[in-house]
Amino acid sequence: GSALTLRGVTKEFNGVAVVDGLDLELRAGEFVSLLGPSGCGKTTTLRMIAGFERVDGGGIFLDDDEITGLPANKREINTVFQSYALFPHLTVAANIAYGLRQRRVPKAELAERVGDALALVRLQSFADRKPAQLSGGQQQRVALARALVNRPRVLLLDEPLAALDRQLREEVQIELRLIQNRLKTTFLFVTHDQHEALAMSDRVAIMNGGRIEQLADPETVYARPRTRFVAGFVGQQNFFEGIERLGAGDYRSADGIGISSQAAVAEAATAAIRPEAVRLSADSAHAAHAAAAANQVGGVVEAVNYLGDARQYVVRTEADRLLLVRSATSAQPSGFAPGDRVRASWRAED
Ligand code: ADP
Ligand code: MG
Questions:
Q1: Residue 168's pLDDT is what?
Q2: Among 12, 17, 58, 134, which is disulfide-ready with 8 (CB 3.0 to 4.6 Å)?
């Protein structure tokens, strides 16, 4: 069944809808990321779910119970904030125990649950420290333990890893996912980082202008984006505008590139090809007669960026547009150099 449901949820600030009839359904035990650019309404959405912000329209349901009007402390939902929001004067253990003390959980049970929560985030030996004596990653784990010790039905996380440096962030991503796997608590995880969302989630909800544009598993979102915004946000970089349909599966872009594709497109469509799906080959004389074939274009390498595991090329095509290409170093050890004439091609299914 669904653990959390939002139906037509709307929030206005000064007459402007920043969350605009938002629909979202999370299955029990699922890890869903809410992915979108800054200002698209992610935090406002979480605040309404948590009960910190009044809803102007629509309804919020936990399992099948409506919670739209309930005060925050009556909802079995907890939130982890980017800022950690730990009490600086309390120890790690006291921070984690805070919510249980408020609810007058008996002493023995409290000690056991705090111990379990400390073990869950591997901070048993830090129980008596103050937050200021911990690293950023450790403070984040305390915030997580403090939220989970209440055994919420849904855990909301608002960009909890944004303040961590890259290597630590990747470690905490893995750890967070393992914890969620173990607890099977439903997680709604907000991020503006598409790699983080794709790597961590069972499903990704891509948000734009106060609405969800697509909710699907990471592979679907990446390979079959439903809108141009979704495609761009998950890393598409080569767009062919003004697609004209010539016949079944046969199209042409505004700049004259033939495109064959199984995708059934409406009028005024845009095609996109991911940089890593484009193959480069040296342009030889006998390739010239193939110039009219679909899914390829000739050009000249304008720039090369060496990324270690891959090279990224900027190719200027015959029609004077820039095409971004990424090829694995292992597949093409020597690569191409600026000024090389190349043919860029891709498969119809890409
Ligand atoms: P995100 O978390 O996706 O970056 P937010 O939900 O924080 O976006 O904000 C969405 C929009 O709502 C932004 O334009 C923001 O300026 C506006 N907003 C958020 N909170 C308030 C508020 N309390 N008063 C007025 N405008 C707000
Ligand atoms: Mg935010």
A1: 85
A2: 58
* Six token digits for residue 162: 């944004």
| Residue 210, pLDDT above cutoff 60 | yes
**Residue 226 alpha carbon to ligand 1 centre in Å:** 25
Residue nearest to atom 13 of ligand 1 (CA): 39
Q: Which of 14, 18, 53 to mutate to test the pocket of ligand 1 (most atoms within 8 A of CB)?
A: 18
What pTM does this model have?
0.88
Cα–Cα dist 235/194, whole Å: 8
Domain enclosing residue 252, as ranges: 236-273
d(CA 127, CA 342): 61
Q: Does 243 lie in the same domain as 267? A: yes
Domain CATH for 330: 2.40.50.140
Residues with CB under 6 A from ligand 1: 13, 18, 36, 38-44
User: Does 350 fall in a domain?
Assistant: no
Same domain, 258 and 132: no
Look at residue 150 and tell me if it is in a domain: yes
Number of domains observed in the structure of the chain:
3
Residue 326, SS3 per DSSP? strand
Q: Give the H/E segment covering residue 327.
A: strand 322-328
| Tokens matching residue 121 | 């985030």
Is the per-residue pLDDT at 208 higher than 70?
Answer: yes
In the three-class reduction of DSSP (H, G, I as helix; E, B as strand; rest coil), residue 33 is classed as: strand
Instruction: State CA 57 to chain mean position distance.
Output: 26
Question: Which ligand is in closest contact with the Cα of 36?
Answer: 1
Residue 158 lies in a domain: yes
Whether residue 205 is found in the same domain as residue 297: no
Kindly report, residue by residue over 94-152, the tens digit of the pLDDT: 999 999 999 899 999 999 999 999 999 999 999 999 999 999 889 989 999 999 999 99
Query: Above 0.90 for ipTM, yes or no?
Result: yes
- What are 264-280's pLDDT values in tens digits? 776 678 888 999 999 99
